[in-house]
């Protein structure tokens, strides 16, 4: 366990020194600050301001998650830095879990920075603390953690570029498919088409479970059971992906 | 003592190391062979980066991949790559922490960096280091856990003449301290100068193991190395032609064909 923490801490330190991360983060903060101007354009309507703000945080965090998830672990293997680590009393599972935990910490940091900028904006515009916004950002964070787990899993057998493609595809399908299933059942569509969509629905993570933005925008609270379910879903899905990643990585010839 | 017993590493289409058996107790042992001979593969199997297809490696009677053994081991990979945005000091601390150490050991890291001659660059990011400095840092991290056994893969590559002399001096000091040093090299002069024993590897097979002096037998090491490799090549060509001739004979004679007219399949061990 100590080795996992050492690797996680090291990953956090190194990624924080990465200029690309700074770039993405700087644009994220800039976007949130732009809301000050956009708030005027939408006549300071709170739901609109919240919507722009939370969507921006989601987008920039997704960029960070996909960028870090697909490069950090892959680079260590590809550039053979992992030789130093794995020749020491560190198992491959510890190394992989350490990288995952480290990237989760980076995302926690970026979520916190963008979140503070967002909450400051809401406070400035409407003089109140957006608790539901915090919940929405927290749920977004769970989704990002899932992205990182998926990206690391793909990195164990594919190149960095392919990992970007696969992770982005999951990002897209994970949101679309659950919506399609729900629409199809409402419209009474069945048969082979629905079966195909349902196969995709179960094969890919259901990312709509983590979308608490619309609730926060309309100031509707999230039932605790729904929150707990999303948390359990993220934990189970991540565990599955990490287990598969370790299994593949253990067999990989370095 | 390090013991390799019938060690084999096979990839899909080629065998990198074949039936490698050897016991080593020399203070400084050099694996000598051409590029692609299998030296790096053997070292990677010792430190657990690769899993043998068959065979075992034991050190002082315990399997080398056991975590307890790994605490006694230092390894420097060939052409080391680092986290470019770390400083030399930070990298040593990180490596030491992976052994469960690291608290308040700054003096130890400083001493190591002085020993390998890059103390002045201790707080510079590694991306600013020259190739020689990287080699030296790779050497320093292999010593961070005060190891009993050191496995150094081409440790003198990329070093200037002064650097080579200094690193050889460090290896001699390590011998005096009672540590066992294994090094991979294809540079004959290094072996002659610092190794007590040598293992000649060619195409994954061990052709000779023993003292350098005995191996040379009064001749230059280069000449003896070429002799043994050429002799191995000749034997291999002869064995292949004999095998081919035998197969042609069988095909012409047809005496080993089965009742259905098809030849039997022979499995050669």
Structural commentary:
The complex is a heterodimer of chains A (254) and B (269). Chain A is an all-alpha fold and 254 residues long. Chain A has one domain. Chain A has helices spanning 2-16, 19-41, 46-78, 82-86, 92-126, 131-155, 160-187, 191-203, 213-217, 224-251. The model of chain A has no long low-confidence stretch (mean pLDDT 88). Chain B is of the alpha/beta class and 269 residues long. Chain B has helices at 39-46, 67-70, 88-97, 106-116, 131-142, 161-176, 188-194, 212-216, 221-253; strands at residues 2-10, 15-24, 28-33, 54-59, 62-63, 73-76, 149-153, 180-185, 197-202, 205-211. In chain B, the strands form two sheets. Chain B has a six-stranded mixed sheet with strand order 6-7-8-3-9-10, with helices on both faces. In chain B, α3 packs across α4 (106-116) and α4 packs across α5 (131-142). Chain B is elongated, with a radius of gyration of 22 Å. The two termini of chain B are 30 Å apart. The chains are: A mainly alpha (254), B alpha/beta (269). The A-B interface holds A 2-3, 6-7, 10, 13-14, 17-18, 79-81, 83-91, 253-254 and B 11, 44, 47-50, 67, 70-71, 73, 75, 77, 80-83, 85-86, 90, 94-95, 97-100, 141, 145.
Provide keyphrases for this structure.
heterodimer, A: 254 residues, mainly alpha, 10 helices, 83% helix, globular, B: 269 residues, alpha/beta, 4-stranded antiparallel β-sheet, elongated, disordered C terminus
Low-pLDDT regions of chain A: none
Distance between the termini of chain B: 30 Å
Overall 3D geometry of chain A?
Answer: globular
What share of residues are in beta strands of chain A? under 5%
- Give the H and E element order of chain B: EEEHEEHEHHHEHEHEEHH
**Could you give a short account of the major beta sheet of chain B?**
6 strands, mixed
Radius of gyration of chain B: 22 Å
Class derived from helix and strand content of chain A: mainly alpha
- Record field, number of beta strands of chain B: 10
Q: How confident overall, as mean pLDDT of chain B?
A: 85
Q: Multimeric state of these chains?
A: heterodimer
Helix content range of chain B: 25-40%
Report strand order across the widest sheet of chain B: 6-7-8-3-9-10
Order of helices and strands of chain A: HHHHHHHHHH
Tell how many strands the DSSP assignment of chain A holds.
0
The biggest chain-chain interface is: A-B, 23 and 27 residues
């Amino acid at each position: 366990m100590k080795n996992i923490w050492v690797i996680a801490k090291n990953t956090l330190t190194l990624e924080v020194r990465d200029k690309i991360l700074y770039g993405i983060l700087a644009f994220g903060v800039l976007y949130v600050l732009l809301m000050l101007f956009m708030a005027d354009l939408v006549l300071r309507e709170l739901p609109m301001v919240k919507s722009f703000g939370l969507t921006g945080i989601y987008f920039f965090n997704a960029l960070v998650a996909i960028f870090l998830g697909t490069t950090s672990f892959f680079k260590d293997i590809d550039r053979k830095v992992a030789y130093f680590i794995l020749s020491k009393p560190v198992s491959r599972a510890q190394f992989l879990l350490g990288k995952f935990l480290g990237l989760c910490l980076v995302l926690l940091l970026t979520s916190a920075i963008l979140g503070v900028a967002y909450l400051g904006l809401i406070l400035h515009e409407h003089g109140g603390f957006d608790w539901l916004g915090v919940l929405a950002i927290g749920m977004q964070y769970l989704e990002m953690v899932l992205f990182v787990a998926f990206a690391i899993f793909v990195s164990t057998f594919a190149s960095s570029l392919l990992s970007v493609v696969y992770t982005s595809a999951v990002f897209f399908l994970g949101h679309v498919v659950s919506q399609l299933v729900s629409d199809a059942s409402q419209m009474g569509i069945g048969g082979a088409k629905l079966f195909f969509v349902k196969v995709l629905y179960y094969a890919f993570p259901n990312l709509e479970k983590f979308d608490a933005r619309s609730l926060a925008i309309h100031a509707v609270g999230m039932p605790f059971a729904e929150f707990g379910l999303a948390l359990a879903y993220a934990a189970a899905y991540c565990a599955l992906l990490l287990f598969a990643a370790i299994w593949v990585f253990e067999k990989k010839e370095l | 003592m390090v013991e390799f017993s019938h060690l084999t590493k096979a990839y899909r289409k080629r065998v990198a190391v074949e039936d490698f058996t050897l016991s080593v107790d020399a203070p400084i042992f050099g694996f000598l062979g051409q590029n692609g001979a299998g030296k790096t593969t053997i070292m990677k199997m010792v430190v657990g980066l690769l899993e043998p297809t068959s065979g075992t490696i034991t050190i002082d009677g315990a399997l080398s991949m056991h975590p307890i053994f790994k605490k006694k081991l230092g390894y420097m990979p060939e052409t080391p790559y680092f986290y470019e945005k770390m400083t030399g000091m930070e990298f040593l601390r990180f490596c030491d922490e992976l052994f469960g150490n690291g608290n308040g050991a700054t003096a130890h890291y400083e001493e190591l960096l002085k020993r390998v001659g890059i103390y002045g660059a201790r707080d510079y990011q590694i991306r600013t280091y020259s190739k020689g400095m990287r080699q030296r840092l790779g050497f320093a991290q292999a010593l961070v856990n005060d190891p009993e056994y050191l496995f150094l893969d081409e440790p003198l590559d990329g070093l200037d003449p002064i650097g080579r002399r200094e690193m050889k001096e460090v290896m001699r000091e390590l011998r005096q301290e009672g540590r066992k040093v294994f090094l991979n090299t294809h540079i004959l002069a290094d072996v002659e100068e610092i190794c007590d024993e040598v293992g000649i590897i060619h195409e994954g097979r061990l052709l000779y193991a023993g003292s350098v002096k005995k191996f040379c037998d009064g001749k230059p090491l280069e000449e003896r190395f070429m002799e043994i490799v050429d002799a191995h090549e000749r034997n291999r060509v002869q064995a292949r032609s004999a095998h081919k001739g035998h197969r042609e004979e069988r095909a012409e004679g047809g005496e080993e064909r089965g009742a259905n007219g098809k030849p039997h399949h022979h499995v050669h061990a």
